[in-house]
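Recap quiz, item 2
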Amino acid sequence: MIKVKNLSFSYDKEEYIFENFNFSLKNEERIALIGDNGCGKTTFFKLIMGLLKADSGQIEIFDQKREKEEDFIEVRERIGYLFQDSDNQLFLPTVEEDVAFGPINLGKSKAEAKKIVSEKLAMVKMEGFEKKVTYNLSQGQKKIIAFAAVLAMDPDVLLLDEPFASLDKQSIKRMIKILNKIAQPFIIVSHNNLLLDQVTNSSYFLE
Amino acid sequence: MIFKKENTYGVSWIHQLDPRLKIVIAFITAFLIALTNDLITLSYFLFLAIILIINSKIETKYLFKKLILINFFIIIIWIFIPFTFPGEELLNIGKFSITAEGINFALKITLRSNSIMLLIISLLTTNSVSEIIHALYRLKIAEKLIYLFFFVYRYLHIIKKEYNNLYEAMLMRAFKAKTNLHTYKSYAYLIAMLLIKSYERSQKVYEAMICRGFKGKFIFFDDFKIKKLDILFIIGYLISLSLIFIFRKGLI
């Protein structure tokens, strides 16, 4: 589904974060990206989402070459990206509106969006949170709601940037349950190898 | 913050009113009060505002806090205006004299500001912020202004938190504010850091938005419907307004 060939990228044209990097994600694969801080895990996600542009190399997503900004609009609609900091992601006043933001952007009607909201909240076991104000939630709750908001777009692939960071034990359990329940292939970044083993079936090491 | 949770989720009939209606009426009445120059009419408006505030069942302690804040400035006005306003002298204290016009003027300012404050508290703080944003949107206010208001509201407390974190980190390393260059420099760096962080965050929020398919337009969820209560309120409002108008123009 995602194929990356000979990718090179640098922020300053001097120090390359990626040089001739190759990567592929196939159906039903669940890949852990492992590497030290600053080795380019988040950068890699941003390249896939088209938030950053590669210096050279090819990115092929859903069997199509992705180069220009327009190519990535479809990518963004079909790949769900869970940000490391949920405060960046949750910006609407209520949980309901935030989860509905994606579906409505995809052209769903309000009634459909409301249905999706209650489905996804039930899926992550956060029923009854619809009218809660997003910034009053705890860090763990924010992450789970942000994840529900990503899932609400029914993405084909998920990119998860540190989904376990700053979560307590209970929220981590909940997150693992959700990750084992969903059907999508995903790429996950985390420093916690124990947790990664519970949710992935292969790993990539970045240097 | 003027929006307080307990006020927002009250149960009085004022809370039930349509937010659009409340915004429009608060705006028009605030204008009327600001333009009125007649003591009796102003007192009447204050009386109406008090009726509203009693009906909204807002916590008295909160109310007094807000009123004390605004009346603190008014006290300063009372100290200066009666002595400096030109007009007929009422009282002489040594070299200073109090004028009738001055007292009249200060009284008007007091009545005006207090009634507008009560009006705003009773009508606007009885909505949640999201309701106000929705209502502004439905009232066809320029979208850019609404987004501005909305994002400022949403991220203000995050910037505050960021500031607290940075400041606490400074205190943890034994920073003491003194009158020296080091202190000024540190504060300057703190503010600069805050600006950079806000800028970076705005970029990240925008990225998160386009990752969820944002194409430049917000769609709001709730639809408002005018209820019987709203119509009753409009009628009551119009009657109270015409009463004072008729009375002052001597039509009765």
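Chain A touches chain B through 30 residues (CB under 8 Å).
The beta strands of chain A are 2-10, 16-25, 30-34, 56-61, 64-65, 79-82, 157-161, 186-189, 202-205.
End of item.
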